[in-house]
Amino acid sequence: MFLFAIIIFVIGMDQFSKWLITRSLVMHQSVNVLPGVISFTRISNPGAAFGILQNKMVLLIVTPLLLFSLVFLFRKEIMQYSFPFRFGLALCVGGGVGNLIDRLGNQGHVIDFIDLEFWPFKNFPVFNLADTAIFVGAILVFGALARLEN
């Protein structure tokens, strides 16, 4: 139950944030949130997190579906792993499904809007909450797996 609550929360926050952005900004419009730190800039991204895998539609649709299916099928076994592993996995699945929903409803694109303006992230690609969940989740999963090996 815990895994799916986190997954639903991540999907909900991601979709709500994208809904707000699409109602507040036109494409490529930017608004300063904290000048010199962060802006919200609405863009359309045909790739994955941080602009990678541009136009790899099949991979970008199949991967989150496969990951969600595996988590569902092996949910009892997953509960035996550490909290950081389970939490990270839930973040990855929630972020992946959040972007999948966006991609299916936007002709293969996701809405990105978080634009960092400070060094060393000044020229970093614009991203969204789902990308952040995937990134943080992957760090937690790999960190937990690395601890298992030691």
Short recap of the structure:
With about 150 residues, the protein is α+β, with helices and mostly antiparallel strands. About 60% of the residues lie in helices and about 15% in strands.
Description of the molecule:
It is a single chain. This protein is globular. The model has no long low-confidence stretch (mean pLDDT 90). The protein has helices spanning 2-24, 57-73, 75-78, 83-105, 129-149; strands spanning 30-34, 38-45, 110-116. The longest helix is centred in the N-terminal third of the chain and has 23 residues, at 2-24. The chain has a three-stranded antiparallel beta sheet with strand order 1-2-3. A hairpin with a 3-residue loop joins strand 1 (30-34) and strand 2 (38-45). The chain has five helices and three strands, in the order H-E-E-H-H-H-E-H. It has one domain. It has 150 residues and is of the alpha+beta class.
